Write a sequence for this structure.
DNA sequence: ATCCTTCGTTGACCTGGATCAAGGCGGGAA
DNA sequence: TTCCCGCCTTGATCCAGGTCAACGAAGGAT
């Protein structure tokens, strides 16, 4: 996972991966959700699917990105590495989310596939031109960016003011809501939550250490806020208990 | 400061405050910076200046906002109050910054004037219509939102992974850069930095307590990274020393 | 089957920053 | 001038979460 020959080269590119946009399962969440058929056709012409294995880098920090794209499957992380090795995950990307920084060729953050992932990628200059010429695209990007900004600020509250326990609960709530959204289902008590990431990724997302994450999970299991099946699977017996323990959750993600 | 009769009512509204946009000192930083003369004239027709005293609330959390606007003078904070009183400042607004959440009438954060402040306010529905009909406005808002998102993520790194000392230095660097930008000057060693806010606001911005802020300032003074004139004024003897002590600063704000 | 190697858990201990508490200082009111 | 009162600083103590360390469980490779 650490020693891949070509960090920015996906493990597979399907150059002719022209699945029909109209059939795209995640389009309603994506930057192209407001597009008309002809606009979709144009995008379709410049799109390429890229697949990544879990742990594989997608874009490096400070690297010149040649593309950007929509997450189609899987989860990716966006993070910053400090000179001394400390790491902060500043965002998780779920299907529908846009990966990459429009209008800026070098991203100040690195993107890594957290699970096996698939990206609907666009050549950067072409996509940026499309953005400028297609109001429905630009408008949707603005909507998405405003929402992401709200989420980022929400997360700042968590990072700055919440206890380790509250952070864990907020994270579970976030992960559960994002999973539910894709399945178009509402939260229910007793639901299963699949954790898409390692303890280390969670720790780096929450501003904690893996040990603290592990301990808090054990503590939450003991008080019954969660029921642990195995390291990656848990049940949420009571959604409202979870939100209470999350300390002022704003239902945003 | 805590017991104001009408939280959302500014201390003064100049209804005929129609200073010419073309002469506006901060327009180049504002959402209207890409506008043509005719577009400026339209905005001018729907704008109103609002003044706030230091400490005065501008928009409450969860409150239905009737306006949003560009900061013209002064500094405002954007923050979230947790049910138990903990507070996190998620952003500072300097002249040129847009105050308020476009396309969403209720802001999930509260805005407070940190110093005496002046706002170029627009009626929300009218401004949103203008946004939708004016590509130069919408495009500029997108640019600004993308930049703010980068800054927010930068701040997440600080909140999640930096030490109290690094946080203080990053804050000084941020405040200095924002001040310099307005004056169109470059950072120089020995420059004076005016702190626009109280220890409490800094603490809430950095995810610290006032005591820690105070102690770190003393510590930084002792090691010579800053020179304290009084509680609100300090010198930055060496810009590079400051950035070193800030631990991986990305020059962003 | 056996060995790694990675990941997660748990325990023991430490420490950075929070908390609690006491003054200092400066500006406005009387 | 004196007295507040809101800020800021500093000291003493505490504790949530970090650090260090050991170990178990679950794959993969051979």
């Amino acid at each position: 996972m650490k020693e891949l020959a070509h960090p920015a080269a996906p493990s597979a590119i399907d150059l002719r991966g022209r699945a029909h946009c109209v059939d795209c399962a995640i389009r309603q969440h994506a930057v192209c959700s407001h597009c008309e058929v002809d606009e979709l056709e144009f995008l379709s012409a410049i799109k390429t699917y890229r697949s990544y294995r879990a742990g594989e880098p997608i874009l490096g920090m400070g690297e010149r990105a040649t593309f950007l794209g929509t997450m189609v499957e899987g989860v990716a992380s966006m993070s910053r590495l400090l000179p001394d090795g400390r790491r902060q995950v500043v965002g998780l990307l779920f299907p529908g989310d846009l990966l990459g920084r429009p209008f800026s060729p070098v991203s100040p953050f690195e993107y890594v596939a957290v699970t096996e992932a698939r990206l609907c990628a666009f050549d950067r200059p072409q996509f940026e031109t499309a953005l400028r010429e297609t109001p429905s695209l630009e408008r949707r990007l603005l909507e998405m960016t405003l929402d992401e900004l709200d989420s980022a600020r929400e997360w700042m509250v968590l990072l700055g003011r919440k206890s380790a326990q509250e952070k864990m609960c907020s994270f579970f709530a976030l992960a559960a809501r994002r999973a539910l959204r894709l399945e178009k289902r509402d939260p229910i008590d007793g639901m299963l939550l699949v954790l898409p990431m390692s303890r280390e990724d969670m720790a780096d997302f929450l501003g904690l250490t893996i040990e603290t994450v592990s301990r808090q999970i054990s503590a939450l299991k003991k008080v019954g806020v969660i029921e642990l099946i195995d390291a990656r699977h848990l049940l949420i017996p009571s959604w409202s208990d979870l939100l209470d323990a999350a300390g002022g959750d704003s239902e945003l993600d």
Summary: Residues 76 and 114 of chain A are 5 Å apart (CA to CA). Residues 135-161 of chain A form the longest helix (27 residues). Residues 163-164, 208-209, 211-212, 215, 231 of chain A lie near DNA strand D (CB under 10 Å from a C1'). The two ends of chain A are 29 Å apart (CA to CA).
